[in-house]
Automatic annotation (TrEMBL), chains A, B:
It comes from the Archaea. It holds the Pfam family CRISPR_Cas2. CDD domains: Cas2_I_II_III. It comes from Thermofilum adornatum. The gene is cas2. Mg(2+) binds at residue 9. This is CRISPR-associated endoribonuclease Cas2. Homodimer, forms a heterotetramer with a Cas1 homodimer. The keyword Magnesium applies. Its cofactor is Mg(2+). One of its GO terms (biological process) is maintenance of CRISPR repeat elements.
Amino acid sequence: MVRVVVVYDIHDDEKRLRLAAKLKSIGLSRIQRSAFTGKLDSQRLKDLYRICEYFASDDRDIIHVFTLCGYDWSRRRAFGTYREVEQNVVIF
Amino acid sequence: MVRVVVVYDIHDDEKRLRLAAKLKSIGLSRIQRSAFTGKLDSQRLKDLYRICEYFASDDRDIIHVFTLCGYDWSRRRAFGTYREVEQNVVIF
């Protein structure tokens, strides 16, 4: 399994919502409005890259995917709190 | 030097602009609307954490700072393109 952080700027609102739903469907959790994280196996990582290719189609859209080793993940710092509007709240 | 990725949700527009200017002032470059990256020495990293503490004061604001080793940074993937409106364009 590998830890990923996905960060995106998607211009179109409806498309942005669909991307968020897709990221949740492969097991990622939201940590900010436009950032998700989670641990993926190699197949799911390929799915993620395919999803990103599809959703970054408009030239105003950009998505970054960072894969973090355990040590880098442990060094992350969060300032402030994120309150997911839906149920699954990610507590840091 | 350490490679950082800073990702933020800042509710207030004027405050968000000031944070972006601060991040640029310590040597970071924008890679997306609300994401910056760059390499910082230990003093600048402390400055960054202090800046994040200050700017994540409103309970709707959140900032994540990830520090990436060279290997993790080399594995990053960018989908789509980011066109900085100002001069310093970051080419991936």
